[in-house]
Amino acid sequence: MSELNLSMDPPESGFPWEAVVGLLPHVLWAAVVVAIFVWIGPEAIRSALRRLSKVGVAGVELEFRDELEAAVEAREKPSTPEDVARASRRLAASAPLVRGSRILWVDDQPENNHLDVRLLRSAGAKVTLAESTAEAFREMGRAHFDIVISDISRGDDPTAGLRMAEIFPARGVSSPLIFYVGEARKPIPDGAFGVTDRPDELLHLILDALARLRS
Question: Is the pLDDT at 21 greater than 80, yes or no?
């Protein structure tokens, strides 16, 4: 006579209800996101993202403006608030262009430029300092620089920067050279990308040079 065994335990195989229940919250959240997307519309979402991006840029611009204003005040040059705002806005909008760029700054009195250097580093540039032509060429032997910023007069030599520029072609240096001086005079010295004595103009020259290099 055969025996009939009855058990109240669920069968080992079957539909995985526990796994399905565990996925339900994720499915619900996905459905909510899709519903919001359909209700608001893709264009409205894109517009909101653009506004958020602009808010972010505006915040960075204000930070840059504060630092640029400090640099302008320290040099006592005739830059207007509009000049500062324009340069700060351009720097904020050009953040990807500046970030990671390498700048060599040659000046025998680097403390005079510390606010300008701080601003460039805040924007993501890598700034290396050199206090003489010899030190500058040593640094250029170690790394490539996108831009070289230099004074003209150093110590007792009123033309040190100009003579450094004359050596660039023989040394194979093709980096744009910007002269940042105490008192700018025209025309632009031979071999230079530009010359200025104003922090806001310096930013424009740097961004112009970087844009040309990346084009």
Answer: no
